[in-house]
Amino acid sequence: MNKDYSVLLENLLGRRYDEALRESIVSDAFHESEYSEVLKYALEAMEEIDPSYAYKTYHIAKRIQERLEKSFDATGVGVDFRYQGPIQTETHIVLYGGVELIILARTLDKKPWIKVENIATHVMQTLSGAGVFTKVDYSTKERIILQSSKPSCEVKILPAIWLDNPDFISTKREIDRGICEYNLDKKTRRKYLPFLNIARVNAKDQRCNGGLKKMIRLLSTLQRDANDPINLSNYEISSVLYAIPDKQLKFNPEYSLSLLGVVGAQLNRVLADRSYRETLISPSEKERVFGTRPHAPLELEKLKAEFDALVSDLNEELKQEKKTVYSDITY
């Protein structure tokens, strides 16, 4: 075996630990099945977190939003609040977390990054002395990371600005509206359509009978458990898998591991074909996922290595039963 799956299962169970109940929240199949540790790790990693915890996470984020709304209103600064993050596509892999609160400036001017900086400063001033967070971190100068306790929950805050992009001007639908975020340290910006990205991932997953999100969760789990940090976002992982044709991603519960071959082939293609990687577009079809960014090949290579190690270990285990990942395996 390439990995110690007793340790990896402990990691997985730790991410799903409910402090109040003093137990990890996993699927019934996790307790009922007699599969080996490597099979349980792979299969449970694909499962959706109990939806009730998404509601609890939103409740935590909503309390933060309400506190900030009062603070911004008191200063007369007009902002809007929206949400994004893996919790919006049910691809989060922790019991509490995976949510990002976007704070958007309503009015535009010639120096929008100044508005973003002012929003970030106000958030830090409002929340740093609140006494309810164990962590308030803005070291990246892009996102503010909060860590609450009881329950322990990470909430990210993204200061940004609205965009009046052509599609939004034409349709007047917020799903078509873009936003612009800034990294004030690197002096870079990113324009994208988060709400259309989210909607299209959700729609494609329905067409794929859950296959898309299962594979996103699996790769996100491998990323989280890797010894060598893998610098890829949920958006980047989701976009790589979103590019796979619907028919190839259709999930059959009687063959729960059969999509691994398709995912492996896609990771190979993104790595080997530079032109394909650099022109790969987001679900919204309005943004290049990696473009020519130099970090992408190395980070994708690290993710592929983790994936290959898992598939190798699965096949080694299944070989004892004269099976492969394409055999009938239900969970």
Automatic annotation (TrEMBL):
Keywords assigned by UniProt, alphabetized: Antiviral defense, Nucleotide-binding, Nucleotidyltransferase, Transferase
Residue intervals of the cGAS/DncV-like nucleotidyltransferase C-terminal helical domain: 200-310
InterPro entries noted in UniProt: CD_NTase_C (IPR058909)
Matching Pfam families: CD_NTase_C
Protein name (database record): cGAS/DncV-like nucleotidyltransferase C-terminal helical domain-containing protein
Top-rank taxon: Bacteria
Keyword Nucleotide-binding found: yes
